[in-house]
Design brief:
Multidrug efflux SMR transporter, mainly alpha
């Protein structure tokens, strides 16, 4: 249960960091750069704590897949990035893969 909390927090921080990366304008803006430099390392640390009990394949798939899906949604909503049927289908396949790994077992 604690590992799931660590993983959830790691995902949230990875999403904040990636969003800030977009806003940093090549690390030329201070506060988005500070967020990137802070959130990514903490996200990796929390991911490492989750890996104490959740298998590497499952934890990383959830971390990267959830982050990818949410960042894609943020891109469409906040930055008016284009979403077509193929992109939506590919994101759905990522989510389906993560769910499949989750059902395959989360412990070592």
């Amino acid at each position: 249960m604690v590992a799931a909390l660590y993983l959830t927090l790691a995902i949230g921080l990875e999403i904040v960091a990636t969003s800030a990366l977009r806003q940093s304008d090549g690390f030329t803006r201070l506060w988005p750069t500070v967020l990137v430099a802070t959130c990514y390392p903490v996200s990796f640390y929390l991911l490492s704590l989750a890996l104490r009990t959740i298998s590497l394949a499952v934890a990383y798939a959830i971390w990267s897949g959830a982050g990818t899906a949410v960042i894609a949604a943020i891109g469409v909503i906040a930055y008016q990035e284009h979403m077509n049927a193929l992109k939506a289908a590919c994101l759905a396949l990522i989510v389906l893969g993560v769910v499949g790994l989750q059902f395959s077992g989360t412990h070592r």
